[in-house]
Design a protein that fits this description.
Length: 400
């Protein structure tokens, strides 16, 4: 039995934040029905190359789609048609959760907004994911991860200190929002056990991106200074950054004074640990411009592997900067089984990245790869009471 066995999720979202949330719920055992546009489907199905090659040699969906839709059922429904709305409302009757990421008010004209569907199923947990939330001066704006990274200060602290601001290499705002949304959904399901009622969850990319600035936020709120862009350095810990060696770079994550003393010993300068400028982390942060070049000069004298071996032996956290292929080839990645190859009904092998949550009592089961467009439409509609003739009529009018 899975952790969320018996929980039914109706997923009206597309692209990344919403599908990321519903994929986690699917991984945990929820029955997730993904609703897509007839013929077109989720936009990310076409966001390639690269595209999956099916067992028969034909082109499948883009890798982007495959990253966020594992374990779901796909049905195609045109919600702009009355017949399509009827299908969605029938699904809502027996759903525990609905996830949507339409613009604010976008579903009201179809009778699928929270206030409308609450009358159908008062126990429904309805999660709305938008760029800027249901309220505020930007509520009507479309939300894009890249733009939100810029608006919330994330890009202002990312990139070289003397270069232009950079976005993070993946859409972290979307991903964090999906994680916040799934947490909120689980909290609302728990609350429902006591109240017997569902509720509306309002999750915004803007809010989530701002919240995840964490200590940088507090540096500003407490210190009153606008946080600078520090490249690979840390705002509050020194030395905690990338250093060059004779044949590459590595990451040193020196988290306390005892570790720094061991670093000083390894680089042949034990006296640095007694120097008032460097003896404490607070002093090292204040004098980082003096310490960092001194460390860099010493680290350049040996190879990366030499330093990683020495630092590991001394109990000082350090690590390589791997490429993605190197990360997947790492023996620890292999031991943790972070790559999972799932096999579709037609024999197509679909590589997946494992869910990073391991439960001892209700382990995650990797059964179904991301579905083909509309793969489960007939199955789901039949279970809802539409027979073959009725489904053919829905196809003829373009509702499915």
């Amino acid at each position: 039995m899975s952790a969320l066995s018996g929980v039914r999720v109706l997923d009206l979202s597309r692209v990344l934040a919403g599908p990321w949330a519903s994929q986690l719920l699917a991984d945990l055992g929820a029955d997730v029905v993904k609703v897509e546009r007839p013929k077109a489907g989720d936009d990310t199905r076409g966001w390639g190359p690269p595209f999956l090659t099916r067992a028969d040699g034909s082109q499948g969906p883009a890798a982007y789609y495959l990253c966020a839709n594992r374990g779901k059922k796909s049905i195609t429904v045109d919600i702009t048609q009355a017949e399509g709305q009827q299908i969605i409302k029938k699904l809502i009757e027996n759903s525990d959760v609905l996830i949507e990421n339409y613009k604010v008010g976008g579903l009201k004209k179809y009778g699928l907004d929270y206030e409308s569907v609450k009358a159908i199923n008062p126990k429904l947990v309805y999660c709305s994911i938008t760029g800027f939330g249901q309220t505020g001066p930007y509520a009507d704006r479309a939300g894009y991860d890249y733009i939100v990274q810029g608006m919330t200060g994330l890009m202002s602290i990312t990139g070289p200190a003397d270069g232009e601001p950079h976005k993070v290499g993946v859409a972290v705002t979307d991903l964090f929002t999906g994680l916040y949304a799934s947490n909120a959904i689980l909290a609302a399901l728990h609350a429902r056990q006591s109240t017997g009622e569902g509720q509306h969850i309002d999750v915004a990319l803007f809010d989530c991106a701002l919240a995840t600035l964490a200590n940088v936020n507090m540096n500003y709120l407490i210190g009153g200074q606008t946080p600078p862009r520090l490249g690979n350095a840390h705002a509050n810990i020194v030395p905690y950054q990338v250093f060059p060696t004779s044949d590459g770079h590595f990451i040193l994550a020196c988290g306390n004074d005892a570790q720094f003393a061991r670093v000083a010993e390894l680089v042949g300068a034990p006296e640095w640990a007694q120097d008032p400028r460097f003896a404490t982390n607070a002093a090292r942060v204040q004098h980082r411009e003096a310490l960092t070049p001194m460390l860099a000069e010493r680290f350049r004298q040996r190879t990366r592997q030499d330093w990683l071996t020495a630092l590991d032996g001394a109990g000082v956290p350090a690590g390589p900067i791997n490429t993605v292929d190197e990360a997947f080839a790492d023996p620890h990645c292999i031991a943790r089984q972070m790559r999972r190859d799932l096999v579709a009904a037609d024999g197509t092998v679909v590589p997946q990245v494992a869910c990073p949550v391991q439960l001892s009592g209700t382990p995650i089961e990797y059964q179904n790869p991301p579905p083909e467009l509309g793969q489960h439409t007939e199955e789901v509609l039949t279970a809802l009471g539409w027979d073959g003739a009725a489904q053919r009529k829905l196809q003829q009018c373009g509702a499915i």
